Amino acid sequence: MANLSLPKDFLWGYATASYQIEGSTNIDGRGDSIWDVFCQQPGKIADGSSGVVACDSYRQYKQDVALLKLLGAKAYRFSISWSRVIPHGGRSDEVNQLGLQYYVNLVDELLSNGIAPMVTLFHWDLPQKLYERYGGFLNKDEFVADYVRFAKVMFEALGSKVKYWITFNEPWCSSILGHSSGVFAPGRSSDRERSSEGDSSTEPWIVGHHILIAHGAAVKLYREEFKPRHGGIIGITLNGDWTLPFDADSKDDLEACQRKLEFSIAWYADPIYHGEYPASMRSQLGSRLPSFSPEEKALVHGSNDFYGMNTYCANYIRHRSTPATADDYSGNVDILLSNKAHQPVGPITQSPWLQPYPPGFRKLMKWISGRYGRPPIYVTENGTSIKGENDLSREEILKDDFRAEYFRGHVNALAEAVSLDGVDCKAYMAWSLLDNFEWAEGYETRFGVTYVDYQGGQKRYPKESAKVVAQLFNSLCQ
Ligand code: PNW
Questions:
Q1: b/e per residue, 371-385, with b = 16+ CB within 10 A?
Q2: Which of 32, 122, 177, 383 could form a disulfide with 36 if both were Cys (CB 3.0 to 4.6 A apart)?
């Protein structure tokens, strides 16, 4: 094996998100988010749970920081609950000082332990009030103005201390899962068995468009008013997984693989790096894909200081020869977990969509690097659940060999991309620091390198994989 290494100052650590870990949803003046309300609707969350308690990190954040220190992490990526800071969310609504103080305390605790904070401004938990007032993401002018004001409050409070900013986490999920399939909050869909409101043929594309503009506007504000003083960097985090042809001999399947990558990643990254949506999307979606005014284009084009990359797995892709349906969002392809020869893409996990394929991580990094002119890549999420993990005893859960093996494969693939393919990757945040509220899957699916005892005061117990991640980076970073 070739000599693999990563730079000595490579930033590695762990990621979480506010609604998944904080709990204390009704404490100290926090307002509801769309996830608080979504969780109350029967049938939306697998185990009928919610983030009301979660990992109790609002109260146990010092334990979280002590844990990060114990695990040797250099950085911690967490997100801000917008409705904790501005309970009603809007630009004329009051700031909740108690909520804001929580994040100041967390950042101070991280810094005094030598851990770099990486802040995600928005990880899906839109203030419910903004959804009720004007439909949330669907109203461009209101949403962009309210989001930029929220960003400004956070830059003012934390700008001198935080050097890494992420505007949005995985806008694909807010658009598609929130406004097309309807499996995530706010749950809109054309499927009337799922939702009484929504239009899957138009809304996801409108939502994505408005998120891009809000991202661009917040970046402009940061660059003009905060970056000159504080020198931090800002970007967006996009999700997407590597694609493999269902039939390796089919030219159609190979083309379909590219189209699927464009519909998931280039949808957002092309406007940011190239100034327009991919041709494949414009041709399939026609006028349902909004277009940018010259001012909007200028705002979005060039708006990333780094590329935030989330990836978990890979899929086999099969071209469809029938015309695309109005609610198709993947480029008119079949997304499959095994190929023509019935080979699975990877072992099964607890997450129906996730079958790990480490070589795809290296290939996807290379694809992003090539398409976007070798941007600095910050991997902001990568990790796995384990089939049946939640049914095991605590002792068994702590021996998470499957997860350790996942990290060995993926960190190695990352080192190959950097050492052998010339990819400029500067950071890796494993998902996740803690077992936590896994959205529509509730607490049945665990992603943590730390076991959280939900019946025992949310006490934290590091799993074997946490040691493996530290060993991997300690030996690679030199
Ligand atoms: C990401 N999919 O979500 C999120 O950023 C995390 O909050 C989440 O806990 C983590 O991955 C694990 O799921 C995704 O269906 C959820 O393809 C679903 C999908 C992708 C990403």
A1: bbeebbbbbbbbbbb
A2: 32
